[in-house]
Amino acid sequence: MSTIDLRSDTLTQPTEAMRNAMAQADVGDDVFGEDPTVNRLEKIAAERVGKEAAVFVPSGTMGNLISMLSHCARGDEVILGDQSHIFLNEVGGIAALGGIHPHTIPNEPDGTLSLETLEKSIRTSDLHYPPTRLITLENTHNYCMGTPVTPEYMSLVGNLARKHKLKVHVDGARIFNAAVALETDIKNLTVDADSVMFCLSKGLSAPIGSLTCGTADFIMKSRKWRKMVGGGMRQAGHLAAAGIIALNELVDRLKEDHDNARKLAKGLSSLKGMELDPESIKTNIIFFSLKHPNLDPERFINGLSAKGIKILMIHPGVFRAVVHREISSSQIEHVLSVIEELIK
Ligand code: TLP
């Protein structure tokens, strides 16, 4: 029985072309700045998001961490969403390692932060307050149904940040999903941000790696932080080679994942006890609740698992399914028929 793994798009395996490119990559010591493949990936990445420079890091978590460390000093404050990955899922690294004070405000269901609340949350110079330095947004917003945040919203936040002399960082782990869903050039989503981190290792199918992009000065600072937290890699071109393929060949096909996610959401919403609005699914992430009189959440997840289907239970009765390159349209139909059977 083959497994249908919907726990995350991080589960994607490298493509055949990636495996070949990794094996044959031209490499050097990247700590000396001498890995030609890493240098090429960083150049492609910076150009793609319209920034001066980029630095290759092993994970999205490290990319966000070094960005925040580069923008903020100890005791500075960052305003971010209470549902953001940085706040919920990055082990509190910004506070533990950077002494950065996280000031959370509620995420709206579409992943944005209310502009009014945002502006009210910026600290005055009162003696008692930590100085606000940074606003951090997430695009797509993972825990807000993978919703893509629009260029129009980015521009409003950019204006607000400039008015208050703040910086803007975007956790764009899945920002290419956002650009594809909104049918916009990715630069329209990054032009109002001072820095952006994006991942190659999720829907784009590379095995490892993320990039942090910004001004040349910012990236110089970020490189130092990367070294300090142990992210200085040597012949990393073997990894970067897969990343180049991810950017050149795997972006446009993300639309397929979004179509399959919508198909899964529509199918689920027609089943008894499943609660979700398929219209809210814009990219590859689906959250749904199970409220069924005869099927408790544990039995549901175990029943799926017995049929080789894996999804994540985020809270009791609340599930996440993420669609990716290794999930076909016919597998979505199979998943729906298994769930229909379980519910009976
Ligand atoms: N997200 C993972 C888990 O950590 C939850 C997932 O399966 O979705 N930003 C966002 C918005 C993310 O979703 C993730 C990973 C990261 C950053 C961190 O990336 P990695 O895992 O490369 O450190």
Structure report:
Strand 5, helix 7 (151-163) and strand 6 form a beta-alpha-beta unit. The chain has two domains: 14-249, Aspartate Aminotransferase, domain 2; 253-343, Aspartate Aminotransferase, domain 1. It has 14 helices and 13 strands. The strands form three sheets. The chain has a seven-stranded mixed sheet, with helices on both faces. It is of the alpha/beta class. The radius of gyration is 21 Å and the shape is globular. 48% of the residues are buried. Helix 1 packs antiparallel against helix 11 (237-249), helix 2 packs parallel to helix 11 (237-249) and helix 3 crosses helix 10 (216-228). Ligand TLP binds next to helix 3 and helix 4.
Overall 3D form: globular
Distance between the termini: 22 Å
Helix fraction bin: 40-55%
Instruction: Spell out the helices and strands N to C.
Output: EHHEHEHHEHEHEHHEEHHHEEHEEEH
Q: What share of residues are in beta strands?
A: 15-25%
Report the bound ligands by name, code or SMILES: ligand TLP
Find the CATH topology of the largest domain.
Answer: Aspartate Aminotransferase, domain 2
What is the fourth-level CATH superfamily of the largest domain?
Type I PLP-dependent aspartate aminotransferase-like (Major domain)
Radius of gyration: 21 Å
As residue ranges, the low-confidence spans are none
CATH C-level class of the largest domain? Alpha Beta
> Any guess at the CATH architecture of the largest domain?
3-Layer(aba) Sandwich
Number of strands: 13
